[in-house]
Amino acid sequence: MRTRTGSPVEIVEVFPARRRERRLFAELPFRLARHWEAWQPGVRRLHEDLIDPGRNPFWRRRRGSFFVALAEGRVVGRLALVDPGSLPERPHDAVLAFPDFADDDGVVGALLEAVEARALERGARGLVGPLNPNIHHDVGILVSGHERRNAVLMGYQPPYYQGHFEARGFERLADFEAWALWREAFQAQDRLLRLARRVERHPALRIRPADLGRFERELQIFFRLYS
After folding, report:
1. Buried-most residue among 9, 44, 89, 189 (CB within 10 A)?
2. In b/e form, how buried is each residue of 66-87, taking b as 16+ CB within 10 angstroms?
């Protein structure tokens, strides 16, 4: 259902280093998700930790700007910007992050105007995203599969998000797909089983559980493989 705020929209910059403002920015998806059965926003504390410069080392090297849209003192939209330099392949582009908003042209327009103005101040030549706040977290906006619950580290955006971005000239840059692999389906596929058994028999490979007694060492190994 389309929402009209019915009152002027005020854009306010917030600073996640401040606990109250961090919570103000993080709260909106939990309220919006009440209207969309499939939307699983996750754990509120993790949302706050993600934007907290005291807890997320990402912000030690990157500068972000965080904005909320207020109507009659109530948050009806939010949007953040990460300064240029966080994407090696697009060094002159700023990154849009954490978009959430009511289905209201005035709200979305005001938020994007604030972010675009800040991007120009920071010397950006373009905008890319959403990345929340980088490729290691949820990315993009959902354009199909709205009837399905979002998986861990996969975002959920109601169908109207796409229309608002496209109405303001944003174009698709890349496609991301999420797949569900069920144990029963895997076991029913002889080819997949044969491949798995070949891997298990490979003399240079060994599969073992993590040794939590050597947590720091195991973490180093995991980080190297992940990188």
Report:
1. 9
2. bbbbbbeeebbbbbbbbbbbbb
